[in-house]
Every structure is written in C-alpha cells, then in structure tokens.
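Entry 14. Two folds queued back to back today. First construct below, sequence then structure tokens.
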Amino acid sequence: MPTTNFRNLLYRAALPLSPSPRGQMSHITHGHPIDIKAFQHILRQHHVLGSSLLLCQGDDFATVHTTIRRPAHSANSDTLFRVASITKMATALVTLKLAEEGAFALDDPIAPLIPDADDEPALRGITIRQLLCHTSGLRDIPAYEQALRNGDTFHTVLRSEGVRVDNNAMSYCNFGFGLLGCLMESITGQSLETVFQQKLFQPLGMEATLDASTLEESRIIPIARVLPYRQGQDITITSLGRRSIAQPDPARHFGHTAGAMYTNCASLSNLLLIIANDGVYKDKQYFSPALIRQMKTQHSYTGTAASPDRRYGLGLVILDRPDISPRKLYGHQGFAYGCVDGAFIEEETGRQVIFLNGGCSEAREGRLGLSNKALLQWALQKELPAWK
C-alpha cells in the first residue's frame, strides 16, 4: 500500500487498472433514503469491492449493503467484516474497564504483568498508557509477523533487533497493542474472547468476536487488494484467525487485539456511542466518565502540513479537520489486506459515519484513507444536512 507521497501518486495513477464496481453494483437499503447516485460515485471512484454503510443522525439512520458481481463480494445485514485496526477502540475500552476494576493502573509498567517479561530490556519502563497511545518506542518489525506465523511467544519479538527505539515519539505499533491482549489474559486468567465478550461485546449488544475460528465463513465478506488484484486470493479468515483462542495463552496471544475483530456496522455504532457519551449506553453507566474522557484526550501527535490528522487518544483516532467538519471526530480506521474501513462519530452532534468493505483504493492523504475522507465529507457536509 502507499506509504510515501511518491508511491501514493504512482498508486493513484495505476488505479484504473484495478477491478471496478462500475455497472455491477446492487444495494440493499434500510432507513432514511440517501442520495444513492452520489454514494455510488464514491464507490466507483475508489473501486470498492462490496461494502456496508451506516449513517446516523439523532434517531434517524440509513444503511446500505452493496454487492458487486465481479469479483464476487456480497454484503447484506447478516454480513460480518474483519475491521482491522478499528479493533483498537475495542481493545482500549476493555483495557480501561480492567483498569476501572482495579486490575492495574494505566501508568503501571507492563513488564511485571505479563509472563516472564520482567527481564526483557525492550519492555523496560513501558507503561500500559504508552501502549494505548503508541508512544512506547516499540516498532512493528518483520520478526513480529514471523512470530505470529510460527506460533512463537512475544519474547521472540522483544529479543529481535530493532524492536524498540530510544524515544517516546508517536509511532503506530500493532505489536504494542497485541501485548495488551497478553496483559488481559495474564491478569484475568481467561481467554481473550471471554474477556471481550464479558467486558464489552455482551454489555453493548455487539455481534462481534476476536475468535474467527468460531464463525461461519459464508457470513464473512472476502477482502482483496484492488491494486494489485490477484484473482482467487481473497481473504475471509487469516491463518492466524483459524487458530482457536478459546483457551488463554498469554505468551502467544499477541496477534488479535490490534486488528482481528469481526463485526458489523450496527455493533460499531454502539461502541462509538459509549465513547461519545462518556461511558453511558442506553441510560446505563458502563464505563467511568473520567477514563472515557482520557480516551478522548489527545495523548500523541505527529502531524505535519502534509499529514494533519495524526492525533491519537487511547486507542482512538481524533480527526480535527475543518475540511471535513468544524467539530472533532472520534473513531478509527482499519487497513488490512485491502480493506479501508472507517468508523467515526462527530463531537456534540453524535452524527456517525461507518463504512466497512471488502477492499478498495488504499490511497491516502497523510494517514487518512482517501475513501474515508470522501465518505466523511459527503455524509457530513451534504447527505446528513439534507435529512429533514
């Protein structure tokens, strides 16, 4: 995927060579009618391979499930999506719940709380809060992916060259979020799936799981890179996802809490609501307001004129983009295997834009996916204001 401005320009120039949904889309819609032609234009522009969209404004909503014929990507109200790094919002909430229950404090060092890690130099001085806001100094290196493939422990990664640099500037790190999963299993003695179900998914009425091995594969939309597109290599469940996590294994379960959640738009809407409402869901206080406010506070930032959107709370992207909205947006993106997912809620108004897909253009503006930017601008500036 593009990682530099130059590569991004090359990617966008080559995008017309990738599969396009033009002329082969069908939609299942519910709720408030939307400008479907404007929405289809965005899908065509970014070569979206099947998707679900949810727009919310007050008590009003609209959903659109879009299927394309070639390559076959079918979506309906029963479809589940692997939402990639949107998982980090859920992981942060579960971490905050455990902190609220007294299992640890956010500024506790993590090393004493996970198996046999006290003597790991790479973890020295790293706190739970730093993992949540990507300021630990840890880096995603090839040894991280290799350890996941091999079923190795997190110690293998920590002892690899380059896993940590000697500064605390923001550096987005999936491995760091994975260690939060090790922490959860170590502290509770329960499997990640049990912890997430009990602390988050069930209380919020979410249809969601970290254990893809339990899912009917036919319900999952396949994910494919549109550039380059390789026929027959769509992904529904990764090799890691096929391994059950029904039993705790805190030394090895560092591959799930950064990006392995499967869920749908309606469930993500509930998750966004509890963040926006300072821990309240359906008039019940599930999370400490003080902790949720910490989650929404900017803890790290690496913005430049070319990348003005790199603001981060605790497991939460903060979009402060006047070109999209005069208000802050809270949420997260998810990039993996070709999908470019996004789930955001607007401060004060509570308007929501959630978009999940089976692959589309991965072109970015800074760190913001251009598909997400286009959808947010259309929804917040044109579509939702037109609702009466």
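Second construct, same run, same settings:
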Amino acid sequence: MTLLRWVSTVVVVGALAGGVYYTMQGRTPDGAAASRRSGMGAGGPVAVVAKNADTADVPVYLEGVGSVKALNTATVRAQVDGRLLSINFTEGEDVKKGDVLAKIDPVTYQAQLDQAIAKKALDEALLANTRKDLERFQKVGTLAISQQQIDTQIALIKQQEAQVKSDTASIENATAILGYTTIVAPFDGRTGIRLVDEGNLVRGGDAGGIAVITQVQPISVVFTLPQQQLPTLTKSSSEGTLVAHALSTDSQTELDTGTLKVIDNQVDQQTGTIRLKAEFPNDKRQLWPGQFVNVRLLVDTLKGVVVAPTEAVQRGPDGTYVYVVGANNTAEMRQVKISRQDDKFAVIAEGLTAGEKIVTSGFGRLKDGAAVSVTDGSAAPAEKPAVKKKPSDGKQAADADKTASSMQAAQAAAQASPEAALVTGSTSEGGKRSGKHSQSHRDSGASP
C-alpha cells in the first residue's frame, strides 16, 4: 500500500511540473512564432508590385557591331627628291584642303623650269624667222625659187611649230615638278604624328611618307548584320533613308546619329553576314577612326501596340504568361503572345489589353487565383525594428503565483506521503534524510 501511494505521488508531481513547463514554454519567442504560424498570417494576401499595360509606338531596330572608318585617309608622301626645308603643320591639327604641310628644296627644279622656258623662246625665234623666209619665197615665186624649196620651207615651219609645242609641254612638266616641292593637304582633315623631321633628305615615293591625314567630319562606320535581315533591310531602305545610331561598346551611351549610305552588293559566304556603311556628322568628335562601336539601325516603327514591362513576362512549360490583377485584387495567370522584346518592354501581340494591371515583382508565393496586396513599387518608409517588450509586472506576478501554487501543491503531496520526499527533495539535507530512510528499510528488512 505504501508503494502505491508513493507511485501516485510521483505521477501527480510529474504532471504539475509538466504543466509549469508548458505554461512557461508558451511565452518564449519560439512559442509565439509557432502561434503566429498557426494563425491567420500564413494565409494573408501576397505583396506584389504591379504596373499598367500601355499603348505606345515601338521602334524596331537591327543591331550590329562595326568599326569606325575615316571618310578619307591619305598618307602624304614626297613626289620629288630633295631636302625637307620645313614642316608647316602641327601634329594633331585640323587642316583645310590646299594648306601647305611641308616644303622641299626647289632650286634644282626651278632651274629645270627656267631651261624649258628658254628653250621654248629659242624655238619660237627660229620659227618666226622660218615663216618670214617662206613669205619671201612665195613673193618671188617659182621664177627665182623652185617649188621644191618652197615645200621644204613649209615643212620646216611645221617642224619648228611642233618643237615649240614640245617646249610648252616641257615647261608644264617642269612647273608641275616644281610645284611638288610644296606639299599641300589633299582634303579637309586632321593630321597625325609626323613621320619625318625637318632637314631630312626625302625621295619621291618613300613608303614612310611625311604625315597621315584623316577626314573625321563627317565620318563613316562599317558594320555587319546577319543575312537573314537582308529582306527587311532592302524593303526599309527602298521606302526612305534609314536612321543609324552609333553606340558605345556597352550600348549604354549614344555617340552620334547618322544615316545608312551603302548596303554591300554581296553576302560574305564565310560568315553569312552583309556589310553596311553608315555616315555620321561627328560634330562632337565622339567617333574616331579604328574605334569599335555598336550600330542600331531603325528599320520600322510599330504604331499603337500594347506594351508591358519586360520583368512582368514569365515563362513556363506552356509558353509566356503574365499575372493580371483583377478588380478584387486577385491574381490571374494569363497566357500572352510576344512579338518583340528588349531589356525594357515587351510588345504583346495577344492576351493583354491596354490599361490592365500586371504584376512586375513578388512572384515568390504568387499563383493563379491568389489574393494580392498591390503597391506601385515606390520605396516605402523603413519600419523601426520591433523592440522586445519585457513582460509586465502583472504577468510576472501571475507567473510567480502559478509557480508558488505548484510548489505548494508539491509540498502538500510530500506531507501527505513522506515517500514523496525521495523524488522532490533537492537540498543536501533532504538527500541525507532519503539515504537514512532507505538504510532503515534495508536494516529492518521491511518489505514494501
């Protein structure tokens, strides 16, 4: 009977301890989190960002990679031999057509011109004298002069006339050669780094030359497009001049705007591309010969089409779709057909009308038919971090009362059954009592 009472007391005390533990555990953060998870918060509306579909005129571009080419490039070389007397340009200077760039010693060539002029004067004097002789022969007639002499005199005049013409040509040649000693710019352009210094001996046709001039205003860009775009190119170019935009290599900065000038007359069979050439005014000098650029060619404009932000378009097993927010703030998954798309907008051919609100962000827990809480994507004010509040004095008192009640109940049970002290005693004295009590049982040989 004593054992039965002892077991009952242990069960009662264990139940009371479990109740105290459960009560305290329910007030811990984990317990509160579990309560929240089991509450209504898990089934609340999904927070999303939504924007309206709109109508717009969408430009259609073809993009290719190309390199900048000077409209004209010339390596200025000496055409005659001689010592370089002077360099008349500054490196990197803009020059006009006809500006003097350099001068070669002209003394030898001036002497050759003078010789040609003098030779012509001599031959002209001989010709004049021969003509007068012919006039005298013709006045006397065949009575004093034979016809043969008259014919010979006529032939001599023709020879001397031809000699004068040769002298004229020699003068023109000498004049041209003398002109080559003054080197001028062949067109408007910009000079580069000079290739020879003043005082050096230059020769006609030297490979090095004196300087390189490039025409950078206007300037051209040669780029390529896939051959599949050739029908679109030919159709658009037949309807008018196509506008071309030169962009930086990352396509983020527009460098200049020009027009398409040439579509090459054949396709490169090795690469399957067609070459094109566009011309740009280059007023701001943003384009430079040899520079790599991206070219965006405007070939068409779609009028009044439905457009949606690109981030709103999702892709699944059945194709592209968007989430449309209905009047009751419910998301509807809708299949759409995309005709064109870039990094900003998608042109919706079917499945969406202008003015409908579509989700652009917050797809994590979104599904068809889900309730949503819609924002426009503007930054919301930052919430202050929640401060963990301490339990109020009332709660502390209530917890203390519950704990005291539990302890009183345990003490009452211990008084009702001395054997309960074997389980609940926590002091060293209690432990000693329990040891003595056990020893007395063993010594007396009392059976339970």
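Quick look at the second one. Helices lie at 2-25, 29-38, 107-140, 147-179, 230-239, 393-416, 421-424, 428-444. Confidence is low (pLDDT under 50) at residues 25-42, 380-398, 403-448.
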